[in-house]
Amino acid sequence: MRDAAGTAAPVTVGIVAGEASGDALAATLIAAVRARLPQVRFAGVAGPKMAAAGCEVWEPSETLAVRGIVEVVRHLPRLVSLRRALAARLVAERVRLFIGVDSPDFNLGLERRLKARGVRTIHFVSPSVWAWRRERLATIGRAADRVLALFPFEPPLYEQAGIPVSYVGHPMASHAASDWSRRTMRERLRIGLATPVFALLPGSRLSELGMHASMVIGAAKRIARARPDARFLVPLVSRATRDAFEQAIWREGADPGTFALLYGHANDALKAADIGLVASGTATLEAALARCPHVIFYRVTALTASIVRRRLLLPWVGLPNVLAGRFVVPELMQEDATPENLAQAALNLFDDTVTRHAIEQVFAGFARELSADTGAIAADAVAHELSLAVPS
């Protein structure tokens, strides 16, 4: 990657991340690659953390923030048009490598199209082929030259399918809680050690708040009746999600004074909390690494739920339970996810200090298992794929 004068020639790498968790992962990768290969320019669909790491933003990540199977159908024409336009622009920019970060329904199709044009491709974050849709491995193999896997049980699946894979660990493990994290975080947030604290994480997308905000606020009202001194920490990723949650507080007639709404800072909220109510997804892993005992919940449309249930390969869906290989964290999905059930599960956990301590010890083991120099390993993989790329 040097020009005729022997200096490092600029190289463009395309990248697409579709939500807050992908934005954080991609930012780790971008920072590590740019530290090692300063001539590399990143550009594509990016969030604020990627932009801060030096990525040129063509479209904001929120553009892809669509959840569920049925829900995606409504947005399909727009997403197909966007993917076609991105592919054309990436080819016109003569990218040597493309990295799709999570968002497999969008990124795998884009990767396949670019790979056919001679662009090297990496898919960062394995789709949940271990949980459902195992047939997706063939699709991934056609789309990606390499997969970067976050969890240690994923590489064997790809190796058996003949797909190059690198295990990179999870960058959140480097910020995992210690034995003193709760005390330290409460001092920072000026919350007494004896105060019952519950972290509410209803999701990072507006569509998730539409499903979950009223439910978790209803649960909080019931918890507050049982524990009048309870405090509720609610980390939200944007002004739009904060506004939506505030509106839900007023709509449900809850006391605004019991909720502390935070811009981001999910890790702080989880480290400070005794118990979390956490929407299924990456946030459940964040809760585990913060050593916060929690209850997992999620709601989607009835049709989406029916499709997923028929294809699930595991009896659990939450990442902490997948990592443990057993039910460690309660899961309340669909019709079981009610304010009454959430409140009761949270209070049961709060009152059972023996179980809480046992769960925290399981979570401490996750941090050790997932700890790796994610940025450096990912940068090695990017450098390797760039070395194989044909100059355009």
In words, what does this structure look like?
- With 392 residues, the protein is of the alpha/beta class.
- The chain has 2 domains: 11-169 and 372-388, 3-Layer(aba) Sandwich (Rossmann fold), CATH 3.40.50.2000; 174-370, Rossmann fold.
- Helices cover 49% and strands 17% of the residues.
- The protein has 16 helices and 13 strands.
- A 7-stranded parallel beta sheet has the order 3-2-1-4-5-6-7, sandwiched between helices. The protein has a 6-stranded parallel beta sheet with strand order 10-9-8-11-12-13, sandwiched between helices.
- Helix 1 crosses helix 16 (374-388) and helix 7 packs across helix 10 (266-272).
- The chain is globular, with a radius of gyration of 21 Å.
- It starts with 10 loop residues before the first strand and ends with a helix.
- The model is unreliable at 3-7 (pLDDT under 50).
Task: Supply the key terms.
Rossmann fold, six-stranded parallel beta sheet, alpha/beta, 49% helix, 17% strand, 16 helices, globular, disordered N terminus, seven-stranded parallel beta sheet, 392 residues, single chain
Spans of at least 5 consecutive residues whose pLDDT stays below 50 are 3-7
The helix-strand sequence is EHEHEHEHEHEHEHEHEHEHEHEHHEHHH
Taking Cα atoms only, what radius of gyration do you get, to the nearest Å?
A: 21 Å
**Strand proportion:** 15-25%
| CATH superfamily heading of the largest domain | Glycogen Phosphorylase B
| Oligomeric state of this protein | single chain
For the record, the CATH class of the largest domain is Alpha Beta
- Approximately how much helix is present in the residues? 40-55%
Largest sheet: 7 strands, parallel
CATH third-level topology of the largest domain: Rossmann fold
The structural domain count equals 2
Structural class: alpha/beta
How far is the first residue's CA from the last residue's CA? 12 Å
How many runs of DSSP E, i.e. beta strands? 13
